[in-house]
Amino acid sequence: MQKNNLLSILVLFILLTFSCSDKNNKILTNSSAKIEQKVDSVLTLMTLKEKVGQMVQYNGSWDVTGPPSNVSDEEKFEKLKNGGVGSMLNVLSVKATREAQRLVMENSRLKIPLIFGYDVIHGYKTIFPIPLGESASWDLEIIKKSATIAASEASAAGVHWTFSPMIDISRDARWGRIMEGSGEDPYLTSKIGVAKVQGYQGEDLSINNTIAACAKHFAGYGFAEAGRDYNAVNIGEYELQNTILPPFKAAAEAGVATFMNSFNEIDGIPATGDKILQRNILKEGWNWDGFMVSDWGSIGEMIAHGYAKDKAHAAEIAANAGSDMDMESYAYEAHLEQLVEEGKVDISLINDAVKRILRVKFKLGLFDDPYKYCNEEREKTEIFTEENQTFAREVAKKSIVLLKNKGNLLPLSKDLKSIAIIGPLADDKDTPIGNWRAKGGTNSAVSLLEGIKNSVSSSTKIAYQKGVSILKEEYPKGRGFLMPLNFNTDDKSGIPAAVNAAKTAEMVVLAIGEVALQTGEGRSQTNIKLVGVQQELLEAIYKVNKNVVVVLMNGRPMDISWAAENVPSILECWHLGSQSGNAIADVLFGDYNPSGKLPVSFPHNVGQEPLYYNQKNTGRPFSPTHVTFSAYRDAPKTALYPFGYGLSYTTFEYKNLILDKNEILPNGEIKASVVITNTGNRDGEEVVQLYIRDLVGSLTRPIRELKGFEKVMVKAGETKTVNFTVNVETLQFYTINKKWEVEPGDFELWIGGDSTTSLKASFKVIE
Ligand code: NOJ
């Protein structure tokens, strides 16, 4: 007891010595040298048991985001008292985090504060569009700011750490988790990942409203075979380096505090036990000093993978491979000490893991004040504020993509005589909150119906009919994360009333798509058409009224080929978050001119998946005269709506693509410019996109690769010049030499409004 007290005093002394003298000097407070000294001083005091304790993360039962364990909260809290736990996830609210932290601070020998993590994926309580939707804004400023707001709300409720951004390249619409990332392209995903890391972490992690970010899932998770969640990934080293890893490298360079590994194996090795990925590439190669948390139970799951024979073996593999913290496998706490004693895991690796964890805790300022994020006043006043709602509306409207607008049916007049608002999602206040909704409340979104009512003039007659339900029964109140869904496949009894409403209306707005929990973890589907009886509703409505605007709410690219062929207007509205209905109304009635562009290709049908624009050419790309080339016999090879695509209420013309030179050395630079004119009569924003192709390489290269973009506002009638720089960053790839290099040869370059643009120039890289 006396010895314990002495030690606690010593830790306190070390911390105070460093932090007091730094108090008036912010640079010193945050200096990494000082932090390293503090980390080392604490590490010296720790027993092996305490070190292992830091590497353990438990779930708190305020939320359950994985298969529940049979360890009770009581048992977990007992372990907190002994310093047997370094972190908890899903402990929510100031009250709960304060209480858990208190157990550690008042009982454990060294009083090392807990770090609390949570899946704050697209907002904490103010919910922004799901990440795939927000990515459609291509607007890095608003993406960064939405992360800043999410961090501020989460930190006001005791959360220190978000498991975001998810930067898995995902090209398969069947994979439910496609909604959580930024789509199919490494360049766009890298830029968005960095913006989010900057938004969450700010300039200084020790400030009370910034939180640690987590780049996940390392690596390859989005390439699950046939889109089946958790499935095997079979890609080679070059594809891994050129396609999967760039967003992770960018996040590491941006100083992301933590990484999470992934459930999948790559070519026979589960990522959680992959030393090359975690140690050689990330920690040594990229010189990254944060810590790696396992995914939920992924250490233990190496047994089911057939890679570890039991939990002890799994712990040995994971610790040696560089998984620093065990989320919910209970493998480290049970076996790591013994593994060290037996010489199966070297103590230097344990020390390295613990130092990484302590480093993040120091950076967050938790040693200075373990309760610094436990501020009841902030919790009451800084969450779900008016200001945050206003910004959520801004982000939501910028994330909407106009897919089709035949005859300029949109925007609608606010003085329409009558409008029929139909569909299972029209008056749905829950679906727009999406999956991974953190504290976003059940039924807390502004519905489309409410948004339209807020917008139209008092003389407009509104008729609402649900028509059909997507689910057989509504979700039970509360959280349905682990719940299977039961679709309505037979009840069409509401269709006649919906048809009646449509018959007499001047205009129909039809809200269809996917409910919130149709995408997200474990939500893979082989059917990406409208589920249930929605297609019947759509066709019945269109039969009686051709003025149909389809408002699609969904978390994955869908097969909407019938709608694309028939109805005049389609708005892609994802799951847009708290302000969904208002944002959609802003676009429907022209208060905002849509500017979103698809971050992922929409297929003609599911058989085309995985579908992405940056494919390889193959040896037989095309033949007009015979069948033996790379294509389908029953569907096009290309997308229904391609990557980068999105219309506006105005039109843009691109011309004068000019390169300032046509030859450069590998380390040279070209200025590329294009002239864009707004040829319509509304102001509008356009995402100007630059693509390149390296024609011959030591490895085959994609037919196009996005390498730059800029979102510009162009007033009606105005002409602007947009400039890009082409340099080493643009041209290099991971070559046959296993290095990032620019290879001499011919290149093509395109600039335009989507990935199919034909405005082209050529240049050469010479030796
Ligand atoms: C499993 C998911 O794969 C991961 O993304 C998430 O952060 C954890 N569960 C914690 O909820």
What is the CA-based Rg, rounded? Answer: 27 Å
Mean pLDDT: 95
- How far apart, in Å, are the first and last alpha carbons? 72 Å
Largest sheet geometry: 6 strands, mixed
Which blocks of ≥5 consecutive residues have pLDDT under 50?
16-30
Strand content: 15-25%
Widest sheet: strand ordering:
11-16-15-14-12-13
The portion of residues assigned to helices is 25-40%
The dominant shape is: globular
What small molecules does this complex bind? 1-deoxynojirimycin
**What is the overall number of helices?**
24
Global structural class: alpha/beta
Overall strand count: 26
In brief:
The chain is of the alpha/beta class.
What does this structure look like?
The chain is of the alpha/beta class and 767 residues long. Helices cover 32% and strands 17% of the residues. The protein has 24 helices and 26 strands. A six-stranded mixed β-sheet has the order 11-16-15-14-12-13, with helices on both faces. A five-stranded parallel β-sheet has the order 4-3-2-1-10. Helix 8 packs antiparallel against helix 18 and helix 20 runs parallel beside helix 21 (534-544). The longest helix is centred in the N-terminal third of the chain and has 21 residues, at 2-22. Residues 16-30 have low confidence and may be disordered. Bound molecules: 1-deoxynojirimycin (NOJ). The site of 1-deoxynojirimycin (NOJ) has 9 residues, from loops.
